[in-house]
TrEMBL record:
Protein name: D-2-hydroxyacid dehydrogenase
Occurrences of domain D-isomer specific 2-hydroxyacid dehydrogenase catalytic (ranges): 9-315
Domain D-isomer specific 2-hydroxyacid dehydrogenase NAD-binding, residue spans: 107-294
Keyword check for Oxidoreductase: yes
The organism of origin for this protein: Chryseobacterium tagetis
């Protein structure tokens, strides 16, 4: 069996595959050439992340391709149903990067609440000349403890966001299309664990009125979850982080509500026009920004690689 990890795979995952007698190609093939590469090199397994697209043309043109794997949870760059119809096995790693994404959410929340995103920009430029002025302007900060955390989406990432919020002493509200109940366990260094029963709501209006900090953790959507009508119903001074997908939040409306001070600050790890975010977003001082790196930690990549390897090895024995 031959594997093309076109968007990369961790060393641990690569070694696990090699130990199982599976050849791993570490080439990075451009989208325009990947069909020819797969066929010319008799590739059995194609592993991707978000960069490589696996559409119907590739699926049709590569009949010998047996397995398509996605490192991570989102499958919007793969025509999954069509691939399954054509007899391909589809694998992914829905929980491997959840903790990494959740930690980034709070990295942004803490940065926004304490103006770190802005002070990190200005200190190298003006720290020696306007130190006291910046100290005063950045003093109107907030603690997260005691505030209400609103989480949109209650999958594996949403659940990890909730757990971090609880650990910081936040009140928690979860919004889903249909109410659901989950038992979440917070596990500590000394072996102790505390369980929380959390039930989500589908009452958008009540959710928006109560949340001080809103984290969006949903799959890709066909329409905005957060648009002008939703912004209008939020608390004044709300903070928002989107690590889900570009297109779940109206970025133009976001800028308008930042300028009106309804939104105190927002963070975007994903963008509607990715990988070319709009310039007004990049230049706005109320935004904390990152280049779609939610699951890009060494820890998450190692988990992703190992989970993909385990699934491929299992399927190899079944094929």
């Amino acid at each position: 069996m031959r594997v093309l990890a076109n968007d990369g795979i961790s060393k641990a995952g690569e070694q696990a595959l090699k130990d199982a007698g599976i050849e791993v190609l570490d080439n990075r093939v451009a989208q325009d050439h990947i069909i020819n590469f797969i066929n010319e090199n008799n590739v059995d397994v194609l592993l991707v992340r978000s960069a490589t697209k696996v559409r119907q043309d590739l699926i049709d043109a590569c009949p010998n391709l047996k397995i398509i794997g996605r490192g991570g949870i989102g499958m919007d760059n793969i025509d999954v149903e069509y691939a399954i119809e054509k007899g391909k096995y589809i694998i992914n790693t829905p929980t491997a990067s959840s903790k990494s994404v959740a930690e980034l959410v709070f990295g942004h929340f803490l940065s926004l609440a304490r103006f770190l995103h802005e002070s990190n920009r200005l200190m190298p430029l003006e720290g020696d000349t306007h130190f006291n002025a910046m100290k005063k302007s950045f003093s109107n900060a907030y603690e997260l403890s005691g505030k209400t955390l609103g989480v949109i989406g209650f999958g594996s990432i949403g659940q990890e966001v909730v757990k971090i919020g609880i650990s910081l002493g936040m009140k928690v509200k979860v919004l889903t299309r249909k109410p659901q109940t989950e038992i979440l366990s917070l596990n500590f260094f000394d072996g102790q664990a505390v369980k929380f029963e959390i039930t989500s709501s589908n009452d958008m209006d009540a959710f928006l009125k109560e949340a001080d900090f809103i984290s969006i953790n949903t799959p890709q959507t066909n329409e905005y979850i957060i648009d002008a009508p939703q912004f209008e119903k939020m608390k004044d001074g709300v903070y928002i982080v989107n690590t889900a997908r570009g297109g779940v939040l109206n970025e133009v409306a976001l800028i308008d509500f930042i300028e009106s001070e309804k939104v105190a600050g927002a963070a975007l790890d994903v963008f509607e026009n990715e990988p070319n975010p709009e310039l007004p977003l990049l230049m706005n001082p109320a935004l904390s920004l990152s280049p779609h790196v939610g699951g890009n930690t060494v820890d998450a990549q190692e988990k992703i690689g190992l989970e993909l390897a385990e699934q491929i090895i299992k399927l190899k024995n079944e094929l």
